[in-house]
Design a protein that fits this description.
This protein is α/β, with parallel strands linked by helices. Strand 2 and strand 3 form a beta hairpin.
Length: about 350
Amino acid sequence: MIKRSLFLTPVLAIAAFHAAAQNTAAPAPPPSWASNPEYQKQITEAKTLETQHRYAFARDAYNKADQAAQGQCAACVVHEYKLDMMMHEWKKAIEDTDELQRLSTSDSQRSSAYTRRGQTLMSMAGEHPKPEKLRPAHEAFSQALVLSPDNVNALFDDGGVLAKMGNFSEAGDRFKKCAALISAKDPARIRAQHFAENPELATHPSAPSFEITALDGSRFNLDSMTGRVVLIDFWATWCGPCNESLPELKKIAEKFKNEPLTIISISWDSDEEKWKHFIQQHEMSWTQYRDADHSLTNRFGINSIPHYFTIDSDGVLTAEMIGSNSNVEGKLKKLLAKATESAAATQHTDSQSSTDH
């Protein structure tokens, strides 16, 4: 098993949107502290440390940059917040949202700060929280929506909170409005639509929404895989345990080629030509994607390869497996049987409905 120096885990079980309101006003002149040499030095160092995944040190550097900016650098605090969330420093993250409230100059900014507060409180509640544990998060998201009713982050996340609290009707309304506001180009729109139709799905673990262009030029959107089982495989050509697992993956791809299964392998390779050659040489015929900057990897919050995720035909994240002895095939058999049964039941219901009419 190959490990990276990565400390984050998925902050939320549901998707996080990053839509921002369009600002058509002329850009404001840079503040006087932006030219402060100490501020510039700390910002540069923070960004370097962040790319090196030295998150605690990066967080300190952003804090020093904010100090050099006389406590007026909202962007610095946003970076501190993101890093605190990555490192599960919940109390510090709450303090960051308080600071963002102080620095906010518009309802939109205040709404964003409340949304971040809600996301932190949601994470603090744990994976299987009791409804009362989620109430503070719901209150924060509600306040965000009072300030900005079209805040899609708050709509989606509050939908998830309400669903976990058992308020499926309200949750469905949140997801429905969210789906109507999200751009058709946003890969998370499909998930919002699914949750609007069946809010109960939002109570289950979910992989991050994503859409990528695969090696063969095809587009892959995780949330468009409804009705199919998905196996996600994080790997690299230079990873010994990954190479040990390759024969099993090839066997799975061949054995279940006529089943409702989609496999996507996501590589950590930085050398594109080596990666392409390896895929061709080993006849890896399923969907391939290269995550050279680890942006997608970071969204899954993983720190080792080979690393597998199985997602059932309802889009529910059912298992996370690490290492080369994960019995991936055994887990897929159960999920494929369920998908086949579900498809047959749906077909029977549709046929019965046609007959009745």
